[in-house]
Amino acid sequence: MRKPIPYKKPEEKKQINKKSIFLFAIFEIIIIILSIVTTAIISLLFGINPYISAGISAVILIVFSVFVAKEFLFKINR
């Protein structure tokens, strides 16, 4: 016979910190705006194809998004 699945008690669940989710959303909006501005600056200043500058900005967007998500959402001691 199988053992029953142990369920977590309500006090064992982690509480969602609404302040960190709000800050995460604000920082994501700022990062997206900076990514758009970076695309425009790279394509206008250096005369690079807009698709290449958009790729560079996408890499910047992904790197910063991962960093911000790791800092805000995965902190255990907050």
Structural description of this entry:
The chain is mostly helical and 78 residues long. The chain is 68% helix and 0% strand. The protein contains 2 helices and no strands. Helix 1 runs antiparallel to helix 2. The longest helix has 29 residues. It is elongated, with a radius of gyration of 20 Å. The model has no long low-confidence stretch (mean pLDDT 77).
What structural class results from the helix and strand content? mainly alpha
The total beta strand count reads 0
Shape, per Cα inertia axes: elongated
Helix content: 55-70%
Distance between the termini: 41 Å
**Radius of gyration, Cα only, in angstroms?**
20 Å
Q: Into which percentage range does the β-strand content fall? A: under 5%
Major sheet description: none
Oligomer: single chain
The residue ranges in which pLDDT falls below 50 over 5 or more consecutive positions are none
Helix and strand run? HH
The count of helical stretches stands at 2
Q: Residue-averaged pLDDT, rounded?
A: 77
Task: Write a concise keyword list for the protein shown above.
single chain; 78 residues; mainly alpha; 2 helices; elongated
